[in-house]
Every structure is written in structure tokens, then in C-alpha cells.
């Protein structure tokens, strides 16, 4: 374990509580959509998860700041917890099991702990700085994540979320160039594409526009698994608001196609 093992354990406890709330509500909102997606029960679940996590942090880490998608930033300090209560909201509301709670801890602007919990997929991924990247049902039942060793773009599997976002960013042509250069493309979407890079089942993942809470937990998990994470322009992803993850070997080539 690393110097952040207590924080990592706390993140798992908070993820357990989040899974409990989201799975109960998932069954409640499951397949209720007749004509148009109504996100009301989801915003309700989102808020409940973030409130539960914030409540735990107020007791367990009163000096840390918290940044969440639902309630913004509270507190000040060298350390801040960054929370996305439900990543993959549109999946959640339609009964698609690809959604997760993202919990991370940043210290002096660097991500040092990340947990991604996807209870409907029965999967969780986590990492702490210098402690490697792991996946499993719990801290004790875990296997190490390792990125792939695919070294040629034409052999690579590329995962993404949404074509419309690439079009909005004025990058659809670059995106299509990349899809033509690789072996296979799949729209697994949201956090899952990037977690597949971490566990070596996909070689490249990219999204043109994301918020810090969409990314923070993902970056440390991919990097601790041996991969690379940057923005599409090669700079720090949390500052630039986009995310490209790869096994590292393909990163330069991928950025060339996307820029």
C-alpha cells in the first residue's frame, strides 16, 4: 500500500454507500422512459449520492475541500476530493448498466487517489499514487490492471463516447482519421472506455470535452496501469478539458491524428 492507503480505504467506503443508493434508484428509474428521457429521478439520485459522500467527508476529512458535479466547490485546502456521483446519466435513466460513481483525491493539483465504481457492471477500478492500478469487487479481492502492449495503430482497438461531441468540437474529421487508422472502434462510452485502456482490453480511448470530475479518477487509474493520459492537444487533461488515454506506446501517433 502507499502513503494514501487510508484515503483509498475511505474512497472505497464512500463508493459502497454510493453503489447502495444508485442501485436502489436504478431499479426504480429502470425502463420508465416512454417518449422522452426524463432525468428528474436521476438528478435526485445524483444529489443523494453526492450528499452521502459529502456527509462522510465532513466527518472523516473535515479539513479537505470537496468539488462535486451537483454542489460545486466547498472548503479550501491543499487536498480536495473530486466527485462525479453518476457518470453516464443518460445510460442510467434508460436502464443501460454502463454508469459509475467517480471519486478522486487531489493534492496540490495532482490526482493521488481514484476509484471508479460501476455496480450494475459489478466492476470497480482503483489506484493510489505509486500503488499500481487494481480492479475487483473489493480491496481484498483484486487483480492488478496493466495496459496492453499493442505497438501499432493498425492493430489497435479504439473506444469513444459520442460522435456529436467531436462534431461540436470541430474535430470530427480528425476523429474519423483516427478511426480509419485503427483495427477496430467501439463506442463503449463514458468512464468505461478509459477503464478498458487501464485493464488492457482497449488500447486507446478519447473524449473531446469533459469536466474535471469526469476525468480525475480515470487519469490516475490509467497512469498507474502503465498508460498515458493527456488532453487532445497533449497538455494536462484537467486543465484543457479533453481526455486521450492510451497504453503509452500509441500516444504520440494518436495525438498527431487528433490535432
Descriptive report:
Strand 6 (123-128) and strand 7 (133-136) form a beta hairpin. The protein has 9 helices and 13 strands. The chain has 259 residues and is α+β, with helices and mostly antiparallel strands. It has 2 domains: 5-138, Fructose-1,6-Bisphosphatase, Chain A, domain 1 (2-Layer Sandwich); 153-258, D-Maltodextrin-Binding Protein, domain 2 (3-Layer(aba) Sandwich), CATH 3.40.190.80. The chain has helices at 5-29, 40-60, 89-94, 163-168, 172-181, 190-198, 212-224, 237-240, 251-258, and strands spanning 65-68, 72-74, 79-87, 100-107, 110-118, 123-128, 133-136, 142-144, 157-160, 184-186, 204-207, 228-230, 243-246. Helix content is 39%, strand content 25%. The strands form 2 sheets. It has an 8-stranded mixed beta sheet, with helices on both faces. The protein has a 5-stranded mixed beta sheet with strand order 10-9-11-13-12, sandwiched between helices. The model has no long low-confidence stretch (mean pLDDT 94).
Amino acid at each position: 500500500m502507499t502513503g494514501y492507503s487510508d484515503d483509498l480505504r475511505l474512497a472505497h467506503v464512500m463508493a459502497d454507500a454510493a453503489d447502495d443508493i444508485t442501485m436502489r434508484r436504478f431499479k426504480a428509474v429502470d425502463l420508465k422512459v416512454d417518449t422522452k428521457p426524463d432525468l428528474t429521478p436521476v438528478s435526485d439520485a445524483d444529489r443523494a449520492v453526492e450528499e452521502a459522500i459529502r456527509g462522510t467527508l465532513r466527518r472523516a476529512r473535515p479539513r479537505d475541500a470537496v468539488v462535486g458535479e451537483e454542489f460545486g466547490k466547498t472548503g479550501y485546502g491543499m487536498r480536495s476530493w473530486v466527485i462525479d456521483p453518476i457518470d453516464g446519466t443518460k445510460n442510467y435513466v434508460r436502464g443501460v448498466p454502463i454508469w459509475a460513481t467517480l471519486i478522486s483525491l487531489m493534492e496540490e493539483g495532482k490526482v493521488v487517489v481514484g476509484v471508479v465504481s460501476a455496480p450494475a457492471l459489478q466492476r470497480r477500478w482503483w489506484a493510489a499514487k505509486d500503488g499500481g492500478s487494481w480492479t475487483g469487487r473489493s480491496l481484498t479481492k483484486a487483480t492488478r490492471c496493466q495496459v496492453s502492449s499493442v505497438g501499432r495503430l493498425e492493430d489497435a482497438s479504439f473506444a469513444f463516447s459520442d460522435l456529436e461531441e467531436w462534431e461540436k468540437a470541430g474535430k470530427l474529421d480528425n476523429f474519423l482519421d483516427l478511426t480509419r487508422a485503427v483495427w477496430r472502434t467501439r463506442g463503449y462510452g463514458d468512464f468505461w472506455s478509459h477503464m478498458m485502456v487501464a485493464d488492457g482490453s482497449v488500447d486507446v480511448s478519447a473524449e473531446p470535452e469533459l469536466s474535471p470530475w469526469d476525468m480525475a479518477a480515470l487519469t490516475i487509474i490509467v497512469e498507474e496501469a502503465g498508460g498515458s493520459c493527456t488532453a487532445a492537444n497533449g497538455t494536462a487533461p484537467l486543465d484543457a478539458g479533453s481526455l486521450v488515454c492510451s497504453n503509452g506506446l500509441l500516444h504520440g501517433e494518436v495525438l498527431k491524428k487528433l490535432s
